[in-house]
Amino acid sequence: MDADGSAQDESVSGGPGQAAISGSRAQSPSASASGSSSTSTTPTDVHMPVAENWCHTQVKVIKFNYMWTINNFSFCREEMGEVLKSSTFSAGSNDKLKWCLRINPKGLDEESKDYLSLYLLLVQCAKNEVRAKFKFSILNAKREETKAMESQRAYRFVQGKDWGFKKFIRRDFLLDEANGLLPEDRLSIFCEVSVVAETVNVTGQSNLMQFKVPSCRLSDDMANLFEKHCFSDCLLVTGTKEFHVHKAVLATRSPVFAACFEHKMSESQSDRVIIDDVEPDVMKEMLRFMYTGAAPNLDRMADTLLAAADKYQLDRLKVMCEQALCLSLTNENACETLILADLHSAEQLKHQAIDYIV
Q1: CB 187 within 8 A of CB 69
Q2: pTM across the whole model
Q3: What are phi and psi of 50, to 5 degrees?
Q4: Contact 238, 280 (CB under 8 A)
Q5: Taking all residues of the chain, what is their mean pLDDT, rounded to a whole number?
Q6: Which one is predicted more confidently, 221 or 94?
Q7: Quick check: helix, strand or coil at residue 224?
Q8: Are both 222 and 176 inside the same structural domain?
Q9: Does residue 34 carry a pLDDT above 80?
Q10: Which of 75, 109, 156, 353 could form a disulfide with 338 if both were Cys (CB 3.0 to 4.6 A apart)?
């Protein structure tokens, strides 16, 4: 039960009503029992694959509302389980579905005796069944909806069947004048109903061409850019080896190179960067990774490549090296690998090496 006196439970109950209080069509701001229809369709997704045959299912929903006003509500002396009913209502003059609201002012049973029970009843139906959602609320002195409770799904109604809330609102909360729910001892219940009218399938065949999109060649194109030195604008020198590279690629991939080019160090100003702490073959493999995201020779130089990846903050390459070194741990290299991991803050490799040694 909520602190404000309402309780969220939906239950089924039946039985004839002992008294009937006629319902009134709601006035502004809650419109009289009026119907409207809406159609929901599956939205078109531009990313959906094109099918040769297709079907669109359209679910038509009719929406309408109704207000029931009970004057002198506090004088209702019905006992537990006894019923008050509204007059019947529908979505319009041509609608063959007839509905009414019913309440148990003092609850449906022993469990709900401290509550007002509220239900939507299907009085007349030309079909075997209909499915509908509903929402109940109480209008306060300002004609504002309050204490709203709504069905969580569309329920199956057959003629004579009702759905609703056994514990719609606590009686003591409802009768308390401070809560303003019974202005001039008048209870105004507002009901909104959404009925599934029909489901229509629209089928057809697609006349669109089937497009075959070529596979992505970005990695291959970047590899060619690196290997063929096209439009290079910088020279990396390590040992006796020179690499023609592109500042934009290196700066994008490595924060260290980005800082080098951005702050216009002496090397960048001459478009020539000398690197004396990375072997040429390691540098080539690192550059290949920076251009393509791949490191085909990783296994045979994982230790030295790890050091280079750490220096130039290539986090993905660093973890790839850690993984390769973990897979190649032996009794002979475990201690050396642990030292390497500690030196370059390779925490995952460090933990694996410790576990292996211990």
Answers
A1: yes
A2: 0.46
A3: -85, 125
A4: yes
A5: 83
A6: 221
A7: helix
A8: no
A9: no
A10: 353
* Three-class SS state of 335: helix
Tokens of 297: 């020779």
Is there a domain that residue 276 lies in?
A: yes
What average pLDDT does the segment 279-298 reach?
Answer: 94
Please check whether residues 89 and 129 belong to one and the same domain: yes
Q: CATH number for the domain including 282?
A: 3.30.710.10
Residue 54 near residue 5, CB atoms below 8 Å: no
What is the residue whose two structure tokens read 């073959």?
281
CB 320 within 8 A of CB 294: no
Q: Are 246 and 208 in contact (CB under 8 A)?
A: no
Between CA 258 and CA 267, with CA 264 as vertex, the angle to 5 degrees is: 90
Query: Do residues 227 and 186 share a domain?
Result: no
Q: Are 246 and 225 in contact (CB under 8 A)?
A: yes
Q: How far is CA 198 from CA 38, 63, 123, 142, 225, in A?
A: 11, 13, 20, 37, 60
The three state secondary structure string of 268-309 is HHCCEEECCCCCHHHHHHHHHHHHHCCCCCCHHHHHHHHHHH
Paired strand residues for 242 = 237
Query: How many domains is the chain partitioned into structurally?
Result: 2
Q: Are residues 111 and 58 in the same domain?
A: yes
Confidence category of residue 32, pLDDT binned at 50, 70, 90: very low
pLDDT tens for 82-112 read 889 999 999 887 788 999 999 999 888 899 9
The whole-angstrom separation of Cα 234 and Cα 248 is: 10
φ and ψ of 330, to 5 deg:
-135, 175
Residue pLDDT, tens place only, 180-215:
999 999 999 999 999 998 888 988 887 766 678 888
200 and 85 both lie in a single domain: yes
**Which token pair is 215?**
């596979």
Q: What is the H or E stretch that residue 37 is in?
A: strand 35-40
Domain match, 222 and 303 both: yes
Q: Provide the domain limits for residue 336.
A: 218-357
Q: Please indicate, yes or no, whether residues 322 and 258 belong to a single structural domain of this protein.
A: yes
Structure tokens given for 31: 């419109």
Among 93-107, 157-171, 302-316, the range scoring the smallest mean pLDDT is: 93-107
